[in-house]
Amino acid sequence: MEANAEISSKTSLNGYVMTGGSGNQSYAKNSSYQRDVADATKLLIQNAVSEHLNPRNFPGLETFYVADLGCSVGPNTFIAVQNIIDAVKLRYQISNDKIPEFQVLFNDHTQNDFNTLFKSLPLNGEYYASGVPGSFHSNLFPRASLHFVHTSYSLQWLSCVPKEIITKNKGRVYHIGAGEEVTNAYARQHAADFANFLQARAREVVPGGLMVIVLPSRPNGVPHSRVSFNILNGIFSSTFADLAKKGMIDEEKLDTFNLPIYATSPQELEATIKHNGCFSIEKIECLPKITTKDVPHVVSLGTRAITEGLIKEHFGEEILDGLFEHFTNKLLESLKDIESGLRVNLFLLLKRKDEDTSTF
């Protein structure tokens, strides 16, 4: 069983964080699509808790621990957390068990803007809140301490760009259009990262505890190029190439920059989960289609809020305005391509098997 293997040392220490603060270009102001995704999971989370969480598995429980991994700066994390707490409270009421107190652990990389996160924390008194900095590809919490783990729109991020593609993906910043060798390198990196993620959670989640994973995906057997998530990133990649041709970006810098994200398939996820062996797959399905119109400047602002830190670190701040102005124009020209792609968000419910976690 792979859960006893040593966690890879390739995990990024600093990670990739969203634009902080609450300004017009912040993630807090430009993550409406991710909020729609959080809203779309509400009923699924209610059903998951109702059908798969048994309070009798935690006799005499005083505190129920919830972790949101990749929380960023809000407000989406608060929506997800409230959905979980409401569902757990209802489950305890139905089973006539005493409702425990709730401790919510908000996790993201050390560079995340936790100040903005906690400034906007809801003051409803329904749970205690703590921040936990660090990479979720490694251990973050004490052994067998978590009852519910949630992560949304975070696990598409890789811990690092696959080293073998640095010299094989020149002129691009993503794997779309780069050929099978580059795409396979991305797939292998994502599988390794997901294996590390599961290994860490196997140690931390109590037997009978639940984990919900929501992430952009592609259907089994469907080419990467047909998925809207990848089409969008392909257009973003071509934006960099255009600026390099105009002399606005140094070509050598472009050749060493790649987006560390990957849209996996259910089949790929299932293979890693089964190899880990510590979790049962209780549900794996696509979220209901989110009916949002692709407005170019809104999509561009959202992309900037997600990638600005990465781009600034590699190219410098001076290219940002020109880059995203050009990206907005390219989106306007490519709306039909984006809207014709498959928009898939995967909901995955895992349950920790009844095994001794002390060996991890």
Report on the structure:
Belongs to the methyltransferase superfamily. Type-7 methyltransferase family. It comes from Penstemon smallii. It holds the Pfam family Methyltransf_7. GO terms for molecular function: metal ion binding; methyltransferase activity. This is S-adenosylmethionine-dependent methyltransferase. This protein is α/β, with parallel strands linked by helices and 360 residues long. It has a single domain (2-353), classed as Rossmann fold. The protein contains 11 helices and 7 strands. It has helices spanning 32-40, 42-52, 76-94, 114-119, 180-204, 228-245, 251-255, 266-276, 296-315, 320-333, 335-340, and strands at residues 63-69, 101-108, 128-133, 146-152, 205-217, 279-286, 344-352. Strand 2, helix 4 (114-119) and strand 3 (128-133) form a beta-alpha-beta unit. Helix 2 (42-52) runs parallel beside helix 3 (76-94). The longest helix has 25 residues, at 180-204. The protein is globular and about 65 Å long.
